Structures are given as C-alpha cells and as structure tokens.
C-alpha cells in the first residue's frame, strides 16, 4: 500500500484489512475499551461527589485524571471499530500519557498532608516543595513528550523517519521516570522515619489505611512508568507497544486501582482533623514526657 493510500485510510473509518497493520500494530480490544471507560467513569463520578461533600478541592486532581483516562480509552474504543483512524490514535496517545500526571499531583498533595500531621522532620522536603518540584518535573516531561510527539507525527505525515521525534519523546519519559523514582525514594524515606519512631501508634486509626492506600497508588503509578519507558525505548514497532495485553495489564490495570483506591479510602474521611491530631500528639507527649523529641536523628 502506498503512502497516499495509507494517508487516506487514516482519515476514514475502515474495518481491519488483513495484511495491513493499524498504527497500533493490532486492532484495539472493544471490550477493554468499554471496561476501562466504565471503571474510570465510575471513579470520576464518585471522586466528584466525595470532593464536593468533604470540600477537598485538591482531590479534583483525581477527577481530572479520570476524565482524561476516559477520553483515552474512549479513543481506543473508537479505534477498535476504526483501527486506521489517525485522530483516534493520536487522541489516545496524548490523553493516556497525560492522565497519570493528575494522579501523581494528588499523591504529592496527600504526602504533604501527612508531613503536616507527623511534623516537618518526618520528611527531607517541605509539603510545598514536593508539589512545586515534582509537578514542575511532570510538566517539563509532558512538554518534552508533546514536542517529540508533534515532530514524530509531522515526520510520519511526510513519510520520513520518525526517529528524531521519538528520541525526544523517550527523553521526556525517561526524565519523568527519574522524577518519579526520586519521589518514590523520598516517600520511602518518609515511611521509614515514621515507622522508625513509632509515630503511627499515637495517631488516629484512619491514618494507617490512608498511608497504605498512598503506598499502593504510588507503586501502581511507578510500575506503569517503568513499563511506558521500556515500551518507548523499544520504538513504535517494538514488542511491548505492538501487543495490547501489556498495555492493558501495565497501563490500564495499574491506573484504575491507583485512583480507585482513594474512592474506598478517601482522604476527606481518613485524614485526621487538626483537633484529632492535637489530641493524639498531646496524649503521646504526656505519656512520653521523659523521652527525646521524635525525628531528632532522622
């Protein structure tokens, strides 16, 4: 098939033609597209109600992330019927790369709330620094990936090599993985300090489930980031990117529980109030008045 014929095919909705691979390297699954649209759609609705009910406005980062995921999986559902359509392909690439950034932003804020609860010495960075540093890194990464994607798309439309644009995209996603790795290390250090000084025993019982939910969400996001980095390193014709089962298992099936966990263990209900924290800390101080202050050697 000539380049002109492929170009014309990308502008229409055409069923799969035997022997001619779609941009994905396969025909996306209709069932997977519908399932993830429903999962992220339900999570979005519940998060919206929860955020409004508890007035946790920062939790709308989860709502926006879910909306973006729905758009991406809707595009893949579209592609299941129109596998060659270029607009559907580009729509799912852009949205599903961006969506996790909103989830990580919510996790950054949540970790900052925990630092406020346990004290500044429970972390190497202040709550504000987490948000500014890592959100900035995410934005820079997305801009670099967008530039690379734009160049690759332009080169593809002109039937020239997409390698320069792809290399820029890879640089952006490697930078993002490095940023998340540093954040994971900081979060692990926070957990180490809290556990080392036995602070959990002095806090409300709702703190432990929420901390566990945050750790679970971070793990899912990190696994997805590793997968997407390796996927792009292999190129557009690599094994991972041309086999949908990996995308379903290591992207969709990672992001859905990463955000849905906060529907069941929502910060609005599980973060202790300032009054509760003050009472808990006061009780600890009165019972351990002869001990050294916590975190003094972290």
Automatic annotation (TrEMBL):
The cross-references to Pfam families, in alphabetical order and at most eight, read: RTA1
Q: What is its main location?
A: membrane
Its keywords, alphabetically, are: Membrane, Transmembrane, Transmembrane helix
Q: Where are the transmembrane segments?
A: 26-45, 57-76, 88-111, 123-148, 168-191, 203-226, 246-265
Q: How does it sit in the membrane?
A: Multi-pass membrane protein
State the InterPro entries in the record: RTA1
Q: Where in the cell is it found?
A: Membrane
**Name the UniProt record assigns to this protein:** RTA1 like protein-domain-containing protein
């Amino acid at each position: 098939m000539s380049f002109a014929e492929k170009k014309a095919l990308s502008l229409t909705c055409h069923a799969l033609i035997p022997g001619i691979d779609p941009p994905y390297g396969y025909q996306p699954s209709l069932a997977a597209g519908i399932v993830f649209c429903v999962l992220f759609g339900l999570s979005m609705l519940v998060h919206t109600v929860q955020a409004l009910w508890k007035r946790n406005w920062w939790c709308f980062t989860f709502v926006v992330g879910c909306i973006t995921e729905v758009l991406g999986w809707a595009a893949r559902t579209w592609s299941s019927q129109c596998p060659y359509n270029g607009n559907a392909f580009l729509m799912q690439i852009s949205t599903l790369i961006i969506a996790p950034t909103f989830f990580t932003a919510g996790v950054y804020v949540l970790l900052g709330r925990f630092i406020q609860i346990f004290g500044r010495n429970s972390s190497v960075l202040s709550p504000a620094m987490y948000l500014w540093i890592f959100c900035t890194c995410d934005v820079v990464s997305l801009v670099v990936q967008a530039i690379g994607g734009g160049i690759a798309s332009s080169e593809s439309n002109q039937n020239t090599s997409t390698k320069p644009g792809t290399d820029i995209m890879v640089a952006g996603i490697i930078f993002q993985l490095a940023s998340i790795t540093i954040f994971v290390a900081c979060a692990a250090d926070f957990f180490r300090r809290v556990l080392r000084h036995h602070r959990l025993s002095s806090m409300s019982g709702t703190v432990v489930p929420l901390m566990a939910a945050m750790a679970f969400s971070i793990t899912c996001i990190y696994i997805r980031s590793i997968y997407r980095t390796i996927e792009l390193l292999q190129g557009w014709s690599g094994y991972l990117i041309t086999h949908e089962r990996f995308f379903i298992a290591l992207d969709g099936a990672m992001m859905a529980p990463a955000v849905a966990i906060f529907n069941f263990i929502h910060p609005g209900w599980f973060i202790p109030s300032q009054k509760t924290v003050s009472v808990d800390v006061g009780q600890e101080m009165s019972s351990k008045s002869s001990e050294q202050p916590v975190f003094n050697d972290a």
